[in-house]
Amino acid sequence: MTVLLELSLPRSELSFGAALNVASEVRVRFEQIVPVGAGTFPYVWVNVPEQATFEEALQRHAVAESFQFLERESGELLYRIDWKAEPGPFLRCLEAVDAAVLQAKGVGNRWHFHLRFDTHDDVSRFQRRCSEHDVSTSIERILSDSAGGHTSELLSPCQRRTIALALERGYFDVPRRATMSELADELGISDQAVSARLRRATKRLGHRVLSEELESDTSRDAGP
């Protein structure tokens, strides 16, 4: 049974927070939702009053190596941003326990995260690490996610997209018809990011299958 955790933290806790905090009415959410080191969150959706003002603010901050405007959808602007700075202790704490970020958005001076952990022990480890690194978080809600949920809920959108592409391109075939580098090129991410997504997706699907088999065996043993 996985655990869902909702929390918030000051925008200053993320190294690139200042670059996105150009005005109190700016709303930010991230497209890539699995922490993968310095390449975390390259795709950023923003809702800002003036596009030019936001881009000028990005240019002023040293944490952004470069950025590219990609598209506009329903009033939001999608950017690819290459960050100079390291993700910071909060995201390092997530990496240490192999947590998945289901949702991340910034409103005003705070970030709001929806996280998934494999076990309650992982949640405890994450909280201890945050305390050890003086990361200030406010826990808003903790929920247990039963193993009986849909696969579409089990995997993050990025994990589903990556594993679907791997199946379509023959990455899992013997012999393989596609390499990890080819998948990375098509997705526009690093080899490391592809590996992390596939590993996490496989781990979660494996937990699901084993949990369902265990429940089935228990039901048979219990009898009518």
UniProtKB/TrEMBL annotation:
Keywords, in A-Z order: Transcription, Transcription regulation
Record-linked SUPFAM superfamilies: Sigma3 and sigma4 domains of RNA polymerase sigma factors (SSF88659)
A Pfam family hit: HTH_10
KW Transcription regulation (keyword) present: yes
Domain Bacterioopsin transcriptional activator GAF and HTH associated, residue spans: 5-134
Domain HTH bat-type: 155-205
Name of the featured protein: Transcriptional regulator, contains HTH domain
